[in-house]
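Subject: Subtilisin-like protease SDD1

B.,
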Amino acid sequence: MGCKVSDIAMGLDAAIKDGVDILSLSLGGPSLPYSIDPVAIGAFAAMQRGIFISCAAGNKGPTASTISNEAPWILTVGASTMDRSIRSTVKLGDGTEIDGETLFQPKNFKPDQLPLVLAARTDNPYCDGPFNTTNVEGKVVLCEPNGYVLDVDKGRAVKKSGGAGMIIMNAEGDAYTIMADAHVLPASHISYADGLKLKAYVNSTSNATVAIIFKGTIVGNSTRAPTVASFSSRGPSQRSGDILKPDIIGPGTNVLAAWPFELNANDTRKRPTYNIISGTSMSTPHLSGVAALLKSAHPDWSPAMIKSAILTTADKVDHQGEPIADQNRTRANLFATGAGHVNPSKAINPGLVYDISADNYASYLCAHNYTDEDIAVITQKKTRCVDYQKFGGSDLNYPSFTGYLNTAGPLSQTYNRTVTNIGEANSTYKLEVDEPNGVSVVVKPQKLQFSQVNEKASYFVTLSINASAKGSYAEGELRWVSNEHVVRSPISVFLKT
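Prediction pasted inline below.
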C-alpha cells in the first residue's frame, strides 16, 4: 500500500491552508534528493509558515542508512519499546517458562501441555500455507521467521490445518523486539534467543510439549525499557550525512491505535475499533503530540525552537538508569537513538534553544550543491546561491554535532552555534563535555551568561582527531549546565585513521 505523490502534496497544501500548527506524517519512502521528495518540499512550505513537521524515520532497521524523511527541517522520529507487555508465557514440558506476547488473550483456553511441532521439520517451515503432509491437529506449531509472511497469516495457516496454537520466534536481526498481534488462535511471539532455547528443548526430547499461559497486560515489568525497536530505521542519513538522524525516538511498539479495518477477531459479536500496532508510524504521532504541547505552552516558538527543546532535553538512559539499549540489549548508538528518548516534562522548559530560519536551510542546501533551480522547487521562490553564505552541518544551527575526521586530513572541524535564552533572565551556563574516543573537543567560550530572556549567545566547537583515535566511529556529548537546566547536544564523529 502506498500514497500517490500528488495526494501527499495536496494533503500538505490543504493542511497549510487550514492553518494547522502541527503536521504529523506517518509515511515514508526511499531516500531522495530534497528537490524531488514531496514530503521534504511540502514540509519546507509548512515550516516557512511556522508549522511543525514530525515524520516517521521508517521501518527498515536495524540496517544502517535506511532513514526516511531526513531533511533538516523535519523532526525524524524513530521507535522505542515500552515497559508494558501483553503477555503470553510459554511453559515447556521440562518446566522452563519463556515470556512472549500476543494481543489475543482467550479466557477459555486451558494451559495444558500440548505436543510441540517445529515447522522447520514439516513441509511448511514458514507457516505460509496449509500443512499438507504433516499432522498438526491439536498441536502447537513453532513457526520460523519469514519477513514475507505476516505473523497473523502464519496463525491462520496453522489454524486452518487444525493446529491448537502457535509460537513465533524472531529472526536473528529482530533479537528481543517482540510484537503483540491480534492472532486468530492461541499464540506467543518470542525473541530469537528464546526461540533457540525452545528449539534446543525440542532436540533434547522425543516428547516435546508446551503450554501457553495468558497473563494479560503487565505494566512496569523488569524488562529494560525504553529500548530501540529492531525495525526502527537507522542513520546515518544518505542525504544529510552531516546532520544526526534520526532526531529522536519515542514509543512505537505495541501501541493502542484506532483501526478502521476488520481485525482477525475471534469474538464475532462485535467489531473491534482499536488494534495494537508497531512502527515508526506509531512513534511519530507521540512526538507530534509533544510538539502540540510545546506549541500550546509557547505559541511564539518557531518549529526549530520546538525541535531544539525536544532534542536537548531527551533522555539517554532507560528506566533502570542504564544507557538506552538496542534490540540486542547492547548499548544503542546515536544513529539508532538520535538525541535520545523524548521527555515531554523536560522539553517544555529547556532553558536554551537553537533556532533556524528558512534562509538558513536554503544556505545549507546551497552548501550541498543543490542548484538555484533545485532550491527554488523546495523553497517555492527564486533563489540565488551567490546571495547566500553557504554553510553545511558545521554552521547550520542544529542542536547536534556530526563530524568526519581523517588523520590524513581534515584533522579538525569547527562548528558555530547560537543559543537563545528562553529560561531565567539572569542565568549562567557552564560547559561540560564528554569527548568521543580519539577526539579532542575545544569549546570557546566555556561559559554563557545571560541577563535577559530571549538574549542570544554564540559559541564555537572544534573537533580534532588525536593520536589515540581507533576504529571508524566515536560519540560523545556537549552540555550547557545552569542551576536549573541541562542543555545536551550529542556528538557523532566518523574517523579514518
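The chain has ten helices and 22 strands.

T.
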